[in-house]
Amino acid sequence: MGVSLLSSPAFPRIFIFSFITSYLIPELALAGITRHYKFDIKLQNVTRLCHTKSIVTVNGQFPGPRIVSREGDHLLIKVVNHVQNNISIHWHGIRQLQTGWADGPAYVTQCPIQTSQSYVYNFTIVGQRGTLFWHAHISWLRATVYGPLIILPKRGVPYPFAKPYEEVPIIFGEWWNVDPEAVISQALQTGGGPNVSDAYTINGLPGPLYNCSVKDTFKLKVKPRKTYLLRLINAALNDELFFSIANHSLTVVEADAVYVKPFETNTPLIAPGQTTNVVLKTKPHYPNATFLMTARPYVTGLGTFDNSTVAGILEYESPLHSAASIRNLPLFKPSLPPLNDTSFATNFTNKLRSLASAQFPANVPQKVDRHFFFTIGLGTSPCQQNQTCQGPNGTMFAASINNVSFVQSTTALLQAHFFGQSNGVYTPDFPTTPIFPFNYMNNPPNNTMVSNGTKLVVLPFNTSVELVMQDTSILGAESHPLHLHGFNFFVVGQGFGNFDPNKDPSKFNLVDPNERNTVGVPSGGWVAIRFQADNPGVWFMHCHLEIHTSWGLKMAWVVLDGKLPNQKLLPPPADLPKC
């Protein structure tokens, strides 16, 4: 049996229109075709945890529709906004070579799509295959506006592992009984931390460990002696997640749509914004049991968090058992690491290595043109006059990179750059190192106030970059999943304590480091990445914990055009939204 990417009830089919034939199913498509999707942004009543509410969705689906394509395909995705909220969609992990206008973050590469307006995201998938996802990229709308983005290899190109019997997307999310837009609005108004979610979800379903949710449980039905490729996606807003299936081990084969050297684990760790493909080998005989698959957070910060557990069920199909008899089988539960198990998290991430083969090389920049050192962490902003704030010592929570808390422009940065109108929009003077160095892991400064600005880094085309990101203990050490738009990067090193520029670089892995688009800056430590700035445009970089992004833990890189036609940003499309 082939892949079943279009048959899961958790992700209803949506039609794809092609220049080759109408209503073309992706599995039957030729390589390098144009695929047309339509996303209608609309309100839909959805019930979870016995709470019914109206949520923003794509095509009335929660989670949203699955996009399936092949490497080399051209995608045209028309987004029509039927709700009162402004909207933009980010195709998380797609390089967007020369097509930065389609990247999606609001006020960075585009103005948002306003009510009753539309925009066609137009891009080609170049040199990428694997599991990614798409999500809203404005405010906290991605709480409900998200879905899988599956890129199959070019036709005739096999996986670098045995072909699975079936492929199943498993996308983790968070559910609030209230409106998430009200949650972040209140947090920004009071200066305090946000109210945490009421549940985690697997493919939109909270599962039997939550109140009133036995009927809302994701079930993965499998057969003995088969292999299944599970495409794991963390679309949760604010939590890294451990995941495990009782009495089954998993083989990791891909991270962030890049193949890795396979290794076995019982429990992958996936940060928000990350994807991980794992191979599940089922038992050789019908086991006369069912098995919980569960996920719960890995937490390092001092703030409140949702410490609940989401569960689905792995169920073996048997012609000898009815649905009623299956419910009476023993149910095994997996064991997950402690919530704050940084040692486990570190051991897992250290196992991730690129294939570094002739077919899938690891093109790590061996020489570095520009070195950057960024501190990543929380801080505070002063409370506004005549207001009582709920942050530390009566202040407001903030977050920053090199103590610069990013101020969102009201003009799209890419437009300002492309038309040479950056004056008054942004300045090209983002600090390459901390303005006030200190002992980042001990004795934080008494002054925790951040500075504010819309500051960017400008890079000539094809600059090779090494960036060290250092966690700080200001308001407590914490893991931060940093996502870079427009590029993959290589994770060449990481460690705990303060980065030592004299000793630590000698330990960098420049042979087969993990290549990805989102990396966790370790709690109480640092991570070093390298990338080639070979994609002209303006590229957002931010913490994928949504509350930290809201507090200002973000910045952007400007990559200038190269000399050749294929090194230049294409002109903006005619339907680019206006602010």
UniProtKB/TrEMBL annotation:
Its cofactor is Cu cation. Lignin degradation and detoxification of lignin-derived products. It holds the Pfam family Cu-oxidase_2. GO terms for cellular component: apoplast. It comes from Quercus lobata (Valley oak). This is Laccase. Keywords: Apoplast, Copper, Glycoprotein, Lignin degradation, Metal-binding, Oxidoreductase, Repeat, Secreted. Residues 42-154, 166-318, 442-561 form the Plastocyanin-like domain. PROSITE patterns: MULTICOPPER_OXIDASE1, MULTICOPPER_OXIDASE2. Its EC number is 1.10.3.2. It is found in: Secreted, Extracellular space, Apoplast. It catalyses: 4 hydroquinone + O2 = 4 benzosemiquinone + 2 H2O. Belongs to the multicopper oxidase family. GO terms for molecular function: copper ion binding; hydroquinone:oxygen oxidoreductase activity. Its main location: secreted. Binds 4 Cu cations per monomer. One of its GO terms (biological process) is lignin catabolic process. The gene is LOC115970012.
